[in-house]
Design goal:
Blueprint lengths: L9 E3 L2 E3 L6 E5 L6 E6 L3 H16 L8 H17 L1 H12 L3 H22 L6 E2 L6 E9 L2 E5 L5 H14 L3 E5 L6 H13 L6 E3 L4 H10 L5 E5 L2 H13 L4 E5 L5 E4 L6 H13 L11 E5 L3 H11 L21 H16 L3 E4 L3 E2 L7 E2 L2 E4 L6 H4 L6 E7 L2 H9 L3 E2 L1 E5 L3 H10 L4 E4 L14 E2 L2 E2 L12 E9 L5
Parallel strand pairs: 7-8, 7-10, 8-9, 10-11, 12-13, 12-20, 13-18, 17-18, 20-21
Antiparallel strand pairs: 1-2, 3-4, 5-6, 6-24, 11-23, 14-17, 15-16, 19-22
Helix pairs in contact: 1-7, 2-4, 2-6, 3-4, 4-5, 9-10
């Protein structure tokens, strides 16, 4: 599969097509700098065609008109198709964005397939409602698909992020136009092919690769798109909301950045477990995770002991060839992102943080994009590395002595995606969890997860929730049908 020629054409109305103006862009692997393929550089005309295909499919009810049980069977088959092509998809994901093949296969493919299956299985088990009105009326409350859903996903988990959005949207009966990141477009295109093979009708699921300004903005501004779902940076998320309002006031759901605090108290029940979670969670996926616990708060009395254990684990996360089966940290997605991470590391040094590990580019002779796992201590809340999302393998360590003070520091962020607290005191655990302004608070673990629980954040980490049954709220309208009932004779 290493020498495979990948098809970079868009998929619109059931067919692979070039961009209408013939433009392309190069898809370069961060593993070693090789050219994987050229990809259709879609623009306004291509987005228009994809939206028109989605609208036609919605209006003639070729998909939304199917009984939920029928859509379920297709969604389950779609999930099966992912697993049947798991090795191919994992290789594609690794070559395209640099994550270790072991995780692309065991995490990304499996999670995406599970998501598709779960929403398919759920859709014929959700009941509508009858309101408790007077006996002279019957008020039916029903869910209906919103119509055409535009989806824009990031490059860090291309399959998983796509699945989180397209699964509930498709299961509910919508048509979807997906714009993958230009940094990692390949698996999205292959997913659309597998959807067709599973039985999703042409026009229902379309993929338009391209740049944000050329394909993403036209999708968000499109007057015939009923809903836009976006995962990515807070900066772009704000633009998505503006464009939704400027156009047809389409509903906009955004899952954005994070700067998650990980708080370890001196009465932590298992210090080694806390260390492993702190290190493993920040370096997983090369630190390219919006929910990464990038701010580590350690109570002062155990700070030195904790840091000693942290540093002992760092060598095990040295970046290596993502295609090797034992690699645990791979390549940064591209040169631009790698340079951004290195710039933040330089700022940490300049602003007075103590560099304890890493801090340099790695594996320079490979032609790929690699950064050493990096630890800063002596970090203060005002430092750039403590405030801004780095999206790379960089951990900022802060210490505290007072619970109220650490809560103030933890919440002193524009983000509120996830957080964690480590303590054996159940009262403290509940109290701190309630006080933390975050969509998910982990207690004595980090990043344990399930499709049944919602994912999203407070503040500038976005609006709405992916995963769980709550996701259906984003892609359905709630309709009331009020029926007058005459009094019986």
């Amino acid at each position: 599969m290493l020498g495979q020629a990948y098809d970079g054409r868009a998929l619109i109305n059931g067919s692979r097509v070039h961009a209408q103006d013939g433009q392309t862009f190069d898809c370069i692997s961060p593993v070693d700098g090789r050219l994987l393929t050229t990809v259709a550089r879609c623009g306004q005309a291509d987005v228009d065609a994809a939206v028109a295909a989605g609208r036609a499919a919605f209006e003639d009810r070729r998909w939304c008109g199917l009984a939920p049980a029928a859509r379920k069977r297709v969604m389950v088959k779609f999930a099966d198709q992912l697993l049947a092509h798991a090795d191919e998809l994992a290789m594609m994901e690794t070559l395209d964005m640099g994550k270790p093949i072991r995780y692309a296969r065991s995490v990304d493919v499996n999670s995406a397939a599970n998501c598709l299956r779960w929403y398919g299985e759920a859709v014929d088990k959700i009941y509508d409602e009858i309101a408790p009105t007077a006996s002279t009326a019957l008020a039916l409350i029903q869910r209906e698909p919103v119509g055409v859903v535009g989806v824009i996903v990031p490059w860090n988990y291309p399959m998983i992020m796509a699945a989180w959005k397209i699964a509930p949207a498709l299961a509910a009966g919508n048509s979807v136009v997906l714009k993958p990141s230009e940094k990692s477009p390949l698996t999205a295109l292959r997913l659309a092919e597998l959807a067709l093979e599973a039985g999703i009708p042409p026009g229902v699921f379309n993929v338009v690769p391209g740049y944000g300004a050329e394909a993403g903005s036209p999708l968000a501004l499109h007057m015939d798109v009923d809903c836009i779902a976006f995962t990515g940076s807070t900066r772009v998320g704000k633009q998505i909301h503006v464009m939704a309002g400027q156009s047809n006031l389409k509903r906009a759901w955004t899952e954005l950045g994070g700067k998650s605090p990980n708080i370890v108290f001196a009465d932590c029940p298992d210090l080694d477990k806390a260390v492993e979670a702190a290190v493993g969670s920040i370096f997983f996926n090369q630190g390219e995770s919006c929910n990464a616990p990038s701010r580590l708060f350690v109570e002062a009395s155990i700070r030195d002991q904790f840091l000693e254990k942290v540093l002992a684990l760092v060598p095990g996360y040295a970046p290596a060839n993502p295609l090797a089966p034992d690699t645990v940290m791979g390549a940064i997605v591209d040169q631009t992102q790698m340079n951004s991470v290195l710039r933040y590391i330089a700022l940490g040094k300049q602003e007075g943080a103590a560099l304890l590990a890493g801090g340099e580019q790695a594996l320079l002779d490979t032609g790929g994009c690699y950064v050493q796992p990096t630890i800063f201590a002596g970090v203060t809340p005002g430092m750039t590395i403590a405030r801004e999302e780095i999206f790379g393998p960089v951990l900022s360590v802060l210490s505290f002595t007072d619970t109220s003070d650490v809560l103030r520091q933890a919440n002193q962020s524009i983000y509120g995606l996830q957080a964690a607290v480590w303590t054996r005191d159940i009262n403290k655990a509940h109290g701190v969890a309630r006080a933390l302004r975050a969509g998910t608070v982990h207690v004595n673990q980090y990043d344990e997860d399930d499709i049944t629980v919602p994912f999203g954040g407070y503040k500038q980490s976005g609006v709405g929730r992916d995963k769980s049954l709550h996701a259906f709220d984003k892609y359905t309208e709630t309709k009331t049908t009020w029926i007058r009932i005459d009094s019986p004779v």
